[in-house]
Design brief:
Blueprint lengths: L1 H10 L4 H5 L27 H9 L4 H15 L5 H8 L3 H13 L3
Length: about 110
């Protein structure tokens, strides 16, 4: 008897709330569409300080920054942000901030 009460709700079909609910697709701009040539003047963008702040507040930031300094830059000092992002499995924005901090000595 109890099981029947539980399953009757689902067999009745969608409720009026479920039938009127609509989803909207929000277009997202992926960093995969950004070319390496477009990254040159990223620091002049007004959102650059927000990206830096967000990246530095990540709990993994100190470990990633020290790993970059100790292991990656000695092997390949001219690594691109896209290569670094792929190697560390982080976003392109995080890689940009890490490389900027490491190359300017602000780690």
């Amino acid at each position: 008897m109890k099981q029947k009460r539980l399953t009757d709700h689902f067999e009745a079909g969608p409720t009026s709330m479920e039938a009127t609910y609509e989803t909207k697709e929000i277009p997202a701009i992926s960093s995969m569409l950004v070319g390496d040539d477009d990254l040159g003047d990223i620091k002049s963008n007004p959102l650059w300080p927000l990206l830096v702040e967000t990246t530095r507040r990540n709990p993994l930031y100190p470990g990633l920054a020290s790993y970059l300094q100790a292991h990656i830059l000695p092997e390949k000092p001219d690594i691109t942000p896209r290569e670094l992002a792929g190697r560390l499995a982080i976003s392109l924005g995080e890689a940009l901030v890490l490389l900027d901090a490491a190359r300017s000595g602000k780690t």
